[in-house]
Design a protein that fits this description.
118 residues, mainly beta, Immunoglobulin-like, 5-stranded mixed β-sheet, 3-stranded antiparallel β-sheet, 44% strand, globular
Amino acid sequence: MIPAKLALEKFTEGDEWDGIPSLTITINGAAPPVPLASAKMRFKKPGAVPSTVVELSSATPGQITIVSAATWEISVPPQLVAGLTFGKWTWRLRCLDTSTTGRPKTYLADEIEVLETI
């Protein structure tokens, strides 16, 4: 499966990022059949060796909120994201369902630009 793209607004390094107010994952117009267990959003600096990775997780309070596990609705509240420095970053949103196998799927991915602070 190729992740869908979601354009995120640019923001200035050191400022609070606006996050994602509400997002519902659907496949062919419906939520996946098994409830959502967790979500992670990883930001990676392209071309950096070793790669610089910043991660937000539903396991950490205030980073990603599972609004409804049954409907796969999540939000990423506005927050300071430590480590997101000036430049372009690629990001991916990976979800894990509650099945016994806990199938991970990357549903969304794109780029975000962090503007230089002056």
